[in-house]
């Protein structure tokens, strides 16, 4: 990759990260759909919606905390808030009844669906003057980048 292309990718990724870290899209979803949910709880339901990393793995508080980049106690508090709010439930593991895994409730699924619609609307607006071929190629390349990037 040329130095110029690498510089352009790096600068664009930093700008994208800054925009995402301000939680602009999460707040927009809350506002646009009048969701009675905190942004941190929104992150929890998003993570649970992603599902586990590997087959046979279950969603746990530890996995949620790791994906959110917070310590276990902070992750536990945020998950507890999501449970208290009715968006997530704790369920006995199918593998080991002593373990608990997390899943979305119908209300949690509704929050995820509303949030995804908001994000997709914002992304569609950003790409509104792109051709279908450009959008398809961008989706392919971005998915490839995310799949191979190990941060």
In short:
Helices cover 66% and strands 7% of the residues. It is built from 7 helices and 2 strands, in the order H-H-H-H-H-E-E-H-H.
Protein architecture, described:
The chain has 151 residues and is mainly alpha-helical. Helices cover 66% and strands 7% of the residues. It has helices at 3-21, 24-32, 39-50, 61-68, 72-84, 106-126, 132-148, and strands at 88-92, 100-104. Strands 1-2 form a two-stranded antiparallel sheet. A hairpin with a 7-residue loop joins β1 and β2. The chain is globular and about 55 Å long.
Weakly predicted, low-confidence segments: none
Count of helix runs: 7
Note the beta-strand portion. Answer: 5-15%
Q: Write the element-wise H/E pattern from the N-terminal end onward.
A: HHHHHEEHH
Shape: globular
Rounded Rg: 18 Å
Summarize the amount of helix as a percent range: 55-70%
Spatial arrangement of strands, main beta sheet: 1-2
Which secondary-structure class do the elements indicate?
mainly alpha
How would a textbook summarize the main sheet? 2 strands, antiparallel
Overall pLDDT: 88
Number of strands: 2
Terminal-residue CA separation: 18 Å
Q: What topology does this entry show?
A:
Blueprint lengths: L2 H19 L2 H9 L6 H12 L10 H8 L3 H13 L3 E5 L7 E5 L1 H21 L5 H17 L3
Antiparallel strand pairs: 1-2
Helix pairs in contact: 2-6, 3-5, 3-6, 4-5
């Amino acid at each position: 990759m040329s130095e110029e292309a690498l510089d352009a990718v790096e600068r664009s990724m930093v700008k994208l990260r800054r925009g995402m870290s301000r939680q602009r899209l999460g707040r927009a979803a809350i506002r646009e759909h009048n969701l009675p949910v905190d942004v941190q709880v929104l992150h929890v339901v998003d993570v649970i919606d992603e599902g586990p990393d590997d087959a046979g793995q279950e969603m746990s508080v530890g996995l949620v905390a790791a994906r959110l980049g917070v310590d276990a106690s902070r992750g536990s508090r945020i998950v507890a808030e999501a449970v208290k709010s009715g968006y997530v439930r704790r369920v006995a593991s199918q593998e080991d009844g002593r373990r608990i895994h997390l899943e979305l409730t119908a209300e949690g699924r509704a929050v995820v669906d509303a949030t995804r619609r908001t994000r997709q609307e914002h992304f569609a607006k950003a790409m509104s003057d792109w051709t279908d071929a450009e959008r398809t190629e961008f989706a392919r390349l971005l998915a490839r980048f995310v799949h191979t990037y190990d941060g």
